[in-house]
Design goal:
Layout lengths: L1 H16 L3 H21 L4 H15 L2 H14 L11 H28 L3 H34 L1
Helix pairs in contact: 2-3, 2-4, 2-5, 3-6, 4-6, 5-6
Amino acid sequence: MEFFGAARQARRDDKELGKGIWRRTHDRFMRGLDRYHQVLEGVADDALYDELVVIANELSAQLPQVRGCCAQAQKLHPSDGLDIPGGSLSAVHRCLSKAGNSLAAAAEAAAMARLATDAAGSARAAESVRRRAAIVVEDVAEAVRLLEGRDAR
């Protein structure tokens, strides 16, 4: 049953996000979220785990906006290739791409936090994860703002 659900989701994604740059941008963000959650599973320190879960929830809350931006961009500039669109959508792509990179950096910082051996080290490491997650949120908000500004014209 799960196989057919995945196949249906893939068809929905193809229709909504296309098979080009917007789909890749969305999928990269999804992979970053998956990686962050995988790292989270290995955290033994309860206090650190609790901090990282709050951050995970904040990052996961960005996914609907990322998907919405990618779907809207696909409507405005359909893509089946890897060419980055010109004009105002290049700025949207840049923000979403940067958000995906920052999300990967947040997952990496969470992995490093997991390895911190003392409370001071894990607190500093958790702060690093927080800073990187804030960049993700800012970049997604900027992409949304750019798309909304484009729609207002």
